[in-house]
Fold Forkhead box P1.
Amino acid sequence: MMQESGTETKSNGSAIQNGSSGGNHLLECGSLREGRSNGEAPAVDVGAADLAHVQQQQALQVARQLLLQQQQQQQVSGLKSPKRNDKQPALQVPVSVAMMTPQVITPQQMQQILQQQVLSPQQLQVLLQQQQALMLQQQQLQEFYKKQQEQLQLQLLQQQHAGKQPKEQQQVATQQLAFQQQLLQMQQLQQQHLLSLQRQGLLTIQPGQPALPLQPLAQGMIPAELQQLWKEVTSAHTAEETTGNNHSSLDLTTTCVSSSAPSKTSLIMNPHASTNGQLSVHTPKRESLSHEEHSHSHPLYGHGVCKWPGCEAVCEDFQSFLKHLNSEHALDDRSTAQCRVQMQVVQQLELQLAKDKERLQAMMTHLHVKSTEPKAAPQPLNLVSSVTLSKSASEASPQSLPHTPTTPTAPITPVTQGPSVITTTSMHTVGPIRRRYSDKYNVPISSADIAQNQEFYKNAEVRPPFTYASLIRQAILESPEKQLTLNEIYNWFTRMFAYFRRNAATWKGAIRTNLSLHKCFIRVEDEFGSFWTVDDEEFKRGRHIQRGRPRKYCPDENFDELVA
DNA sequence: GGTTCCGTAAACACGC
DNA sequence: AGCGTGTTTACGGAAC
C-alpha cells in the first residue's frame, strides 16, 4: 500500500506539475495571471485584460500605419510589373490562411475551460465588454486586410500585364508581410484573450458567448483555392529561401505573446516550419480544412458518413461532405453545445487515459528495480543490497537455470508481472498463483523486494507473487539468528502479508510441506526444540524440491553438515 | 503432448 | 485424544 500510494503521490505530483505547467503556459501566453481561488480578483483580471487590450490597440495602430505606408507606396509605384510576379500571391495567401484560421481549443484548453470557476456577474460583464471590443477590432482589421488584399490583387494584375520593377514590388511585399505579421499578432492576442475568458468561466457561464468571439473567425474559413495557392506559394518560396528571404512562412506554433514583452512577438519567421505547404499551426480545424491534401483523413468524415457526433449523414464524396459540414454544422448554438459535449467526452477520456498512464507508470516504477537492473548470468545480481541480507542478497544468482536457460537477462515486464501485483481484488479470486517470478526469473526475493511493497501486502489481501520457498527463505534470512521455528515462520507470514491471515490451515500446511521438500531448508534441533535454517547456496542451486526422488529425512546428517 | 514447477490436500508418524 | 510438527504422496494447473 505504501508503494502504491507513494507511486500515486508521485504520479499525482507529476500530473499536477504537468497541469500547472500547462496552466503556466497559458498564463504566460495570456495576459491574465489570475489567482482565482480567493474569488475576488476581478480588479486584477480586468487590469490584465486591459493590458492585453492596450497591446492589441498598439498592434492595430502599427497595422494601420503599415497599411497607410503600403497604400502610399502603391500610389507611388503605380503600375510597375515585377520580375517575379509569381511570388506575389505567396505573400498574400499565407497570411490569409493565418488570418482566417479559426480558433481551435486544444485539449489543455478544454480541460481548463471545463474546470473553470465561476465569475461574478460584474466580472463577466467587464470581460464581455472587452471581448466585444476586441471583436470589433478584429472585424476592423479584417476589413482593412480585405481592402489591402483587393488592392494588391488589382495591382498585381496590372503589374503582370505592364511589367514592373521588382525592387519596389519587394518593398510592397515586405510591407505587406509586416502588416500581416501585425495582423497575426493581433489575432494571437485575441486568441489569448479568448483563452483567458474561457479559463475564467465565461464560455461556460454564458453559453451564447462562445459564438461571439468565434464567429468572425470561423466565418473566414479557408477556401480550397487559398489552400492551393498557399501550396504553390510555399513551394515557390522554398527556392527563394536560399536567397535569405525567410519571410516565406509563418510559424504559428509559438503563438504565445508575452504580455510584458509584446515586442517579442511570437511571429517567428521560420522557413522550415511548414511542410507540404502546410502552416505549422497544429490545429484540428486547420487540418480538417486542408482537405485537398487530407481529404481521406478528415476526422469528421469517414466511410462516406459524416462523423459529427450524432449526425452520421451520408455524404457521397468529400465535397458534399464539406457542404454538409458547412451547412449543417455551422457555428451556431447547437454546434457549440455539441462541441461542448464532445469536449466533455474528450476530457473524460483524457482523464481516464491520464489515470491509466499513472497506473502504468506506477507499475513500471514498481518493477523498475528488477526490470532494468542488469541480470547477466555471470554477474551477481546485486539489486537487493539489503541491510539484513548482505550475504544472500549480494550473492543472489540464478536459482533455477534449467527453467530459463535462454533468458537469464529477461526483464520482468509489467505484462508478466503486473497483474499479480496490482489487481488486488482479482488476485484474491483467481486462486493460487503459480510461477512466482522470484523463482521463474531466477531472482530470489529479498527484503528489498518485499519492503518495496511491505505496506501494500500488509494491508491488502493480495497474494504475494513469491513462492512459499522464497518467502520461507526470506523469513529465515530476515531473522537476526538466521533461524526460525515453524511458529515464528507462521508469524512472519501473518505479520507481513494480509493474505496469510486467512485459510491458515492451507498455507501453514504448504509451509510445512515446503520446509520438508526443499533441500535448502535445514531443520536443526537443540535443547529448546527445533528450528529451521536455510542453506542459501542450495536454494540458489536450482531445483530445490525433490519430488520424484523423495529425500530421506536425516536430521542428524543435516545437523552435522550445518555444524561442519 | 510431455516435462517441470508449484500449490494444495491428504495421509501418516512422532512427540508433548 | 488432541494438537503441533514434520514427512511423504498424489493431484492438478500453469508454464515451458
Chain A has two domains: 42-280, 375-563.
